Amino acid sequence: MDYIDPEHHDGTSDATPGGEPDKRRPGEAAFAAALACASAVLVWSALGIENPFGPNGLSSPRSIPLATTGVMLVSAALILVKTLRLPLDRAETLVRDILPPVVLVFALLLVGYGIVLRPLGFLPTSALFLIAALKILARRNWGWTLAISLGSLVAIWLIFRIVFSVLMPTGLVPEAELIQFFRNLTPGGAS
Amino acid sequence: MSIAMDFLTVFLQPQLLLLVGLGTFSGVYVGAIPGLSVTMAVSILISFTFSWEVQPAIALMIGIYMGGVYGGSRTAILLNIPGAPSAIATALDGYPLAKRGEAGTAIGVTTVMSFIGGFIGIGVLALAAPLVSEFALRFQPRDYMLLAILGILLVGSLSQGSLLKGIFTGALGLAIGAVGRDPLTFAERFTFDVQLLEGGISFIAVMIGMFGVSEALLQLHHVNKDAIRQKISRVVPSLATVRKHLPLSLQTSSIGVVIGALPGTGSDIAALMAYDHAKRVTKNPERPFGDGAIEGLVAPETANNAAVGGAFIPMMTLGIPGDAVTAIMIGALFIHGLNPGPMLMVDQPDMFWSRCRSRPGGQRHRAAVHTKQLRRQDTARTAVAIHDRIPRHQGRASGVQCRSEHDLSRRRYRSAGSPCATRAFVGTEDFQHSMGGLWFKRVCRGVRAAGNTRSAAITSFDQSSRETGCSSRLLGLVHARSGPDRPAL
Asked: Which of A97, A121, A142 is the last residue of a domain?
């Protein structure tokens, strides 16, 4: 059974929120505060939504956004207060149990993936991401890493792009020309 | 008798059975891949079936639809990443079971319950389609609003541990749904002057982010741990297990059928409501909900598959799509020269039963009797029902664009509606004599409204398949095939 013993703080914590409901985990208060701040920003943004029905218009484009962000703000504030009242779990640390370096690295890798996906394109960005991910996690030789990452990327590309015609950012790769080149190789493909 | 023979002929064609199997097999794979939706798969595969006969084409599409709804549960159980929105509730208890090494049991229960749910959905479609669609059409805008509020209130039941956190995440989901331009006034909401956000945030992107990325980051905590060996010795659940959960599966199937029959809803809402129902009615589950309760698998899986049959009910009887996939299928039927709606069961009864045949064990005898009754009375009555209610459904199903499309197509269809309306009246002789000219006018107007519905369906289909890039080709064919008694879209 995959049971996480909360007493064994050896980096095997699953970081599931509420792992120990009667204690505050490291970073939990800061996260709750961040959520409350983000909710306040969203409430402010909702207040700025244009209301074509006048200030007293009951039904307007900002009614639902104001209501939902208001609920977010109130519930986030209550969560923050409840979290602050809990005693801190001193057996856990943020770096070891909640946000270990590997998680941080992958979070940054995902953010980087999102940033460079459009300029570089799906194929090069995904190839770089998969190679880096496999090298960091599996720590095996380059041949194995390249074979698995590029092989799986080609399989995914074939399924999404060729079979299901899902358009993905092409970026630097002349994808359309490549596909047409292969079509030209088949009889009747150029038509 | 001839209808029964039609049904039997269709049922016994091995080519069609093979296509249903092939479609189901493909649908399971498509449904299991997060990011590939059944809607996308069906809309793409339609283009391959343009030159086919209509029955093989429909058999393939229905197979994909049923398989796709079921296939979403695979990754939900094994990876905690639902392959489709309808499998979100399945992940709540399926994944904890897999973590315990009982993925085989979870998959087995899911498979059997999906079969039961699908069977019941198709059974209701065969036996009580007009009744259910009549009930569905009674839903007013306020009822839809209450249904939406009920869905939001399910947060209280689905959030495990902390209700406050559940409320926060529920409100966050609504806020994410509000991102983009308001559909009525085009006011910008939460776009922060980013042009990309003006079109809103895709549901699939949110689902993959919330379930897929978070699960991947959580798994990074266990990189150095040994993988759990899954018990695959027994996948098929015991008869006692099935019998024990049969009452719950019947209850949640009925939830699935009704929710599926409501235009604008779908199997995802049905699954969540069924999960909530199971939590409330199961007094002593073997394991707590959220920790691997079998009831937490039974309820959503029966409901989401039953919702497939339910979604076909308004499509087959009224020409109103129950969800995005049936909207595409209406487009497909239209392309193949059929007129989905109240006249389909009269003009093309073999088509109706070929759908029922797509799941084993259609109710043959009663089906034939039922269609005869329908011929006499329900056609006209249903057409009137459409007329009374259609504009509201169009607004709900397809938004502002459809409303403008509705007005446009109504004007166009008016000139071409009479032949269709006359045909609608053929076969309703008893009704004609008893109700007279007043009803005739109403039927005419109803069938015109049915034409508008098809326009709305095609528009909805266009919207849903726009991402795939094949909509222009399909709509081009619709244009080309618009005959004298069909509305030019």
From this structure: A97
